[in-house]
Structure formats: structure tokens, C-alpha cells
């Protein structure tokens, strides 16, 4: 615990110095919180989001199954079956037929390609909360969070996310501190991470090193060799294309050893992993080792937008220097209300757990590593998964992972 405290204090010192410079130059950008009023509300009264007013359910409901079912126009389905998806020969004609409503035949499929991990996109309580917010508030004050967009709805969502992640949060991407820190990135990090680091490197803000995928020995060697005082390690928690998990415990150990700033992209783990839905850091009991946790509301929360969970001092730095934060219009109130209710429900409900699957090829994955990407959600049934596994097993030989008992492989793989 003592070493963790020293690491945190070291980075806090860097940020405190940077904030001091901003304040001395009168460039500190404070948030301006405001209450979103509605018609007929008395002056001074505050609109609050009360999680107790939202109805909860147990077990799979009819709307849950709807979240895993889609319909494709028959003309497009036939093109998929003919292997013509990646050609543009007939696409314009098909779109004209579909848009003119001439195509009236549809093929029903079970969806195994979406990001609605918990099946909340069709939940009636979330839909009602979103509709209620839209009726009372419209889309809310439309502006930057630093000008007029930071309302009590956004603060409620921020507080809920802060409690979930054991930190403070903001909806933005973080900026780097000046000076040229060295950043270390996993070789299979998401394209958004790679692009962000490349931009930072091009602007002269950082030096970038890439370590072999989940190879902690390689990362340890690079960190040991690096002479920069400020080091940052950026990694996905769950790698979406390969489906494997970053070695969280080993990363926490290396953080204590080398004193780097740990930035974790938990887009695929947030709300879906951990006892309380706090993500992979909660699952592996290293929440306090992660300095900045990047998450999204567009997957398991079935909404839109993103956030950074961090300490108060990092929050102040980000809100003053995060260009994508203060140059963007804040999320509309109905979406924020939907996100807030989604978080309330993931803490209070426990859902039981032809096919539409998407083939993924380069540049989304390295050359010669094309694969079918399957997404399992809370609304697919065991029978759905068994039927899909049986179909795929006709063409693909399943390999037993080392961590699964081969004697129980049949049931484990399903």
C-alpha cells in the first residue's frame, strides 16, 4: 500500500504543477452546473432522478428476446448467402428497392453480432425514462459542458459511474501533460487507442513504444530500459477481436514496480464484468491500481457516449485541457437519463442468460487472421448458443483451451 501511495502522489504532483500553471495563466476551465427546469416547475425547485421510481423485473421477459432478433430484407439476405457481401455490384439497386418499400419480404435471424451485452436496448423501464426526460426537458441545453450543458442529469450519471468505478468521472477523452512522457501500448489495442497515440506522437507530445500482446516480460524489459521519468501504459481490458483478457494482476504488479500511469480501456468489460458491473478491474480486484479508466455507454448500457473515470485532480486537468470535451456539445438529456437508468438496473436485476454473425477481416484484424466474431449477450438462450455451436462445429474444429477441463469440454464450450 505504501508503494501504491508513492506512485499516486508522484503523478498527482505532475498534475498539480500543471494545474497551477493553468490557474496562474487564468486558463483553468471550471464546470458550470445547472438544474434543467421543466414547465410548471416552481422557481428554485430541482429536478431529480429517483432510481426507486423505476420498475424492475426478474428473469427473461418478452422484450428481452426482441433484443436478440432482427429481420433482414430478403434481397440482401440472398446476397449474403451468395457470398457477394463485399462487392458493390448490386448494392445501389438493392438500396433503391428497399428504400422505395418494394421489398416486403424479410428473413428473421438471431443476432450474434451486436454490442447490447445485457439486452437493455428493449427494456421498457429504460425506454420510459428516456421518453419522460424527452417530454419534460426536450434534448436539454445544447452546448459545451463548460458553457451551459452540464446539468443535474449529467451530474447524476457522473455520480453513478463514479460509485461504480470507485473514482470520479467525465464524458471525454483525456489529454496528455506536456513534456514528452513515454507511452507503452499493447500490440492488439483497439484502433481508437492506436489512432489517439499516433496523433499524440505526431504532435510531439509523447514517445510511443509497442509491447507484444499481453507479454508482461516484454513490457517489463521496455519499462526497465526506458529512462523517461513519466511513463504511461495503455491497454484494453478485454480485447474485442481475440476475446482474451489483459493480465490485470501482472499489470498492477508492474505499475507498483515502475511507477507508470495505468490507462485502462474497459469498453467491453464495464457493466458486464465484476460483482457490481465495475468491469475487469473490479473482477481482478485492482480498481485502485488503475489511474484512468476509459469506458463507453454504447455497449452494455445500450446508450451512447463515453467517459473517463479518474481522480478529482485528473478530472480538473481534463476539463481544462481535453479538447474533445470542451469543444463538443454534451450528450442530450434523454440519452443521459437512459444511461443512468441502465446503471440502476444492472445493479438491481440479474438476467438469465437462422443466426446473424459478422465476418471480420483486415484492417480490423491483422492480415491472414480473418474470423467470425460472435457476441454473447444476456438475452440469447442456451438453446440459441447450442444451435449456433452445432452449426459452426460442422466447419470448424474446436480446440480445448488450456484452462478448461477436457473431460467436460462438450458442456463447457456450449
TrEMBL record:
Keywords: Pyridoxal phosphate, Transferase. The keyword Transferase applies. Residues 110-338 form the Aminotransferase class I/classII large domain. The keyword NADP does not apply. InterPro entries: Aminotransferase_I/II_large, AON_synthase_class-II, PyrdxlP-dep_Trfase, PyrdxlP-dep_Trfase_major. Belongs to the class-II pyridoxal-phosphate-dependent aminotransferase family. BioF subfamily. This is Aminotransferase class I/classII large domain-containing protein. It comes from Hibiscus sabdariffa.
Amino acid at each position: 500500500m505504501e508503494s501504491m501511495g508513492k506512485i499516486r502522489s508522484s503523478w498527482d504532483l505532475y498534475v498539480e504543477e500543471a494545474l497551477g500553471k493553468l490557474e496562474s495563466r487564468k486558463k483553468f476551465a471550471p464546470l458550470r452546473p445547472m438544474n434543467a427546469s421543466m414547465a410548471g416547475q416552481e422557481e428554485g425547485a430541482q429536478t431529480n432522478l429517483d432510481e426507486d421510481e423505476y420498475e424492475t423485473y426478474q428473469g427473461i421477459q418478452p422484450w428481452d428476446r426482441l433484443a436478440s432478433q432482427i429481420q433482414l430484407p430478403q434481397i440482401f439476405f440472398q446476397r449474403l448467402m451468395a457470398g457477394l457481401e463485399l462487392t458493390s455490384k448490386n448494392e445501389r439497386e438493392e438500396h433503391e428497392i428497399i428504400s422505395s418499400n418494394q421489398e416486403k419480404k424479410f428473413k428473421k435471424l438471431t443476432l450474434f453480432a451486436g454490442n447490447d451485452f445485457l439486452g437493455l436496448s428493449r427494456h421498457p423501464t429504460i425506454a420510459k425514462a428516456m421518453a419522460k426526460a424527452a417530454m419534460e426537458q426536450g434534448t436539454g441545453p445544447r452546448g459545451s459542458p463548460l458553457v451551459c450543458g452540464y446539468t443535474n442529469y449529467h451530474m447524476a450519471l457522473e455520480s453513478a459511474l463514479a460509485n461504480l468505478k470507485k473514482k470520479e468521472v467525465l464524458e471525454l477523452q483525456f489529454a496528455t501533460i506536456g513534456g514528452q512522457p513515454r507511452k507503452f501500448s499493447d500490440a492488439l489495442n483497439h484502433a481508437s487507442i492506436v489512432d489517439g497515440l499516433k496523433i499524440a506522437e505526431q504532435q510531439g507530445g509523447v514517445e510511443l513504444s509497442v509491447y507484444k500482446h499481453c507479454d508482461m516480460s516484454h513490457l517489463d524489459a521496455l519499462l526497465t530500459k526506458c529512462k523517461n521519468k513519466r511513463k504511461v501504459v495503455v491497454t484494453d481490458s478485454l480485447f474485442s477481436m481475440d476475446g482474451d483478457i489483459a493480465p490485470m494482476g501482472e499489470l498492477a504488479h508492474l505499475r507498483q514496480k515502475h511507477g507508470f500511469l495505468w490507462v485502462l480501456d474497459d469498453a467491453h468489460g464495464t457493466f458486464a464484468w465484476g460483482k457490481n458491473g465495475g468491469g475487469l478491474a473490479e473482477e481482478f480486484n485492482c480498481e485502485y491500481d488503475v489511474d484512468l479508466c476509459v469506458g463507453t455507454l454504447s455497449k452494455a448500457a445500450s446508450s451512447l457516449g463515453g467517459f473517463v473515470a479518474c481522480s478529482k485532480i485528473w478530472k480538473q486537468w481534463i476539463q481544462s485541457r481535453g479538447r474533445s470535451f470542451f469543444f463538443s456539445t454534451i450528450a442530450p438529456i434523454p440519452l443521459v437519463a437512459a444511461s443512468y437508468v441502465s446503471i440502476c438496473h444492472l445493479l438491481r436485476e440479474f438476467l438469465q442468460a437462422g443466426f446473424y454473425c459478422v465476418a471480420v477481416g483486415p484492417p480490423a484484424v491483422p492480415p491472414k487472421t480473418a474470423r467470425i466474431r460472435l457476441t454473447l449477450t444476456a438475452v440469447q438462450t442456451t438453446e440459441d448458443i447450442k444451435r449456433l455451436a452445432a452449426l459452426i462445429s460442422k466447419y470448424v474444429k474446436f480446440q480445448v483451451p488450456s484452462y478448461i477441463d477436457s473431460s467436460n469440454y462438450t458442456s463447457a464450450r456450449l
